[in-house]
Amino acid sequence: MTDRTSKIGTIADAVALIPDGTRLAIGGFAIYQHPMAVVRELIRAGRKDLTVVGTVNGNEVDLLAGAGCLAKVETSYVGLEKFGLAPNFRRAIERGTLEVVDYSEILSFDRFRASQENLSFWPCDYLGGTDVLTHNKDIKPFTCPLTGRAMHAVPPADPDVVVIHAVAADRHGNVILPQRHLLPQSLDVIMARGCDTVIVTAETIVSDAEIRRHAAQVQIPSYKTTLVVEAPWGAHPCSVLGRYRADDAHFAEYIAASASADGFQRYIDRYVHGPADHMAYLALVGIKQLTSLTEIDRL
Amino acid sequence: MPENKIDFTTNELVTALISREIRDGDLAFVGVGTNGRAFTLAVGIPLTAVRLAQMTHAPAASVYWGNLLEPDLSSMPADLRQDSFTRWQAAACPSDTGVKCDMLARRAFDVCFDSGAQVDRFGNLNITAIGDYRKPKVRLVGCLAQPEHFAFVPRPIVVVDLDRRVFVEKVDFITSVGHLRGGTSRRDVGLSEGGPHIVVTDKAIFDFAPDTKAMRLRSLHPGVGLEEVFDNMGFRPVVPDEVPTTPSPNARELELIRQVIDPNRVLLRV
């Protein structure tokens, strides 16, 4: 019997919702809690000309940039925090094969807040003098009709699709945020609010009863969710707050490989194209390595 | 070269100097930083300096770091990453981005610490790209919240090593507006008073001339001469008739830094 209220699908179903040219927002922040299982599947599927619109991006954009999936990135940061600059993103920009549109960090949040309110622009009063303005023709000057103040109209984020990785969700797409959460998890919620196609990968699909016990922590209710995919260790090598730490050894291997385009190609041959799917990827990383990262926390 | 009664490192010298710039009750923004020397400049020196201020003249000074408000600086976590230091004791851990927007735009901060790949004569910073923006020689991280720091925080402190490639006549990309083109140009583009307060380097301290807003030499570190400073800059700063020596840390400050605040040399490692 089919369950008509279930939104459960596969990682392949998720990628089918993200065709070439999609304007995509990817959850997580810097090197934390990105939906990496979906990111790797986008590369396996050979996606092209994606635009990533984000706030503070990291290894997820670096991986997509290196694999040639991106046409444009609109963000306030692409970097790997304690692991330094994002090597593949950097290479693509320096070669002129990838376009970047720079926004300041608060403004990059505000663009999603504009989408949440379904507004056509967000007003900003502090961009004067910056070269953000010099290179971004989508930001337009205007005069505040109430105060006469010189301001700038900043375009909203308006992603076609948002994909985030969460700790737990139910089959209907109610998504739980742990009690102890940070900016990365809160930003996921803001991103989801501003978009009509929201894909959630979750460490665990929990029962309806479990969700009802944690109703106060359901920050993304099912009406927002398009597709729910169970993806244990779905953020690896990133951390998931309260579930597992970042795989620093894997990050180090990634950085070393990314010193050259050839080295990066060998990395994705091994870790992305080699395994047929997410489970095969986890098998390749290995149970010993994965379990060494486990972190126990309460919801 | 003046003889130091007490030996100290340059990191300790500038940490003590910065701590004296912190006033009681100040709220300071500290970034998250990357690794190596960049981490020391963006995170290590600022955190140590604010803690030193708390332990000496500014007990009510506090920090916003990652998303911790008033983290307990009496014990530093070993792993300084956002997902680990949330377990650290703090007054609050506001995860809502709106709090960060509110704190910046409504001017809750008194001081912020920023570093950069380029800084120019008027204290404009570049952390975005070196060379031609469309096909840069070096693509850097982007903007982060640095434009907001420089727009809204009254006393930004720039911490950067003195280097000819860093101190340039004009930055390749203005990520963050300092004193823009000097004079009243910052206010003319609609920004409030403010702009970078001081620039702290490994050889000298700079501030900005009140009228022209051009970078001005404030003090030379012990043993550093004018020529050495000029050799490491792509422009000539304003040089007053008398240039004092950066005041040395005292024995008490050094003891606090070494034995109490950063005993494992995590913050001032490199």
From TrEMBL, chain A:
**How is this protein named in the record?**
CoA transferase
Keywords (A to Z) from UniProt: Transferase
Q: Name one GO molecular function term.
A: CoA-transferase activity
UniProtKB/TrEMBL annotation, chain B:
Gene Ontology MF annotations: CoA-transferase activity
Keywords for this protein = Transferase
What InterPro entries does this protein's entry cite?
A: CoA_trans_fam_I, NagB/RpiA_transferase-like
Per its UniProt entry, which superkingdom is the organism in? Bacteria
The record's annotation in SMART domains points to: CoA_trans
UniProt name for this protein: 3-oxoadipate:succinyl-CoA transferase subunit B
Q: Which organism is it from?
A: Skermanella stibiiresistens SB22
Q: SUPFAM superfamilies of this UniProt entry?
A: NagB/RpiA/CoA transferase-like
A Pfam family found in this protein is CoA_trans
